[in-house]
Amino acid sequence: MTAETDRPDAGPFYHGTKAALEPGGILSAGCTSNYGTRRKANFLYFTATLDAATWGAELAVGDGPGRIYRVEPTGPFEDDPNVTDKKFPGNPTRSYRTRDPLRVLGEVADWEPHPPEVLQHMRDHLEELKRQGIEAIDE
User: Fold this and answer.
1) What band does 85 get if pLDDT is binned at 50, 70 and 90?
2) Average pLDDT value over all residues in the chain
3) Domains of the chain from N-terminus onward
């Protein structure tokens, strides 16, 4: 785990979702996940890249538009093991998780969505993993 005062990544940090959030709001672990089987989320996930946040916004469950927010971790965080050691050596996506709250700083309005064919390819891949019984986020 990385101590808040000794972070290897200074951000800025982003969180992709379909939820409408307000600046100053607090995100807390323990709510229903935006992904997979929608079980209780033991962690909050965030990233220091707009591309990874874009995937979060596009793939989150829900009917609303994808949204990306600037967030601030309020406590320690660690590399997201779902994408680091399992899929990418190191942490090239600069993806993290925390059990501590994230403070919403504001919405990012100028992000670019992935092309429709790229997004569909990712959705097809996630559907295949689901058919195989593999959960995208393993807490």
Assistant:
1) low
2) 83
3) 4-131 (3.20.170.40)
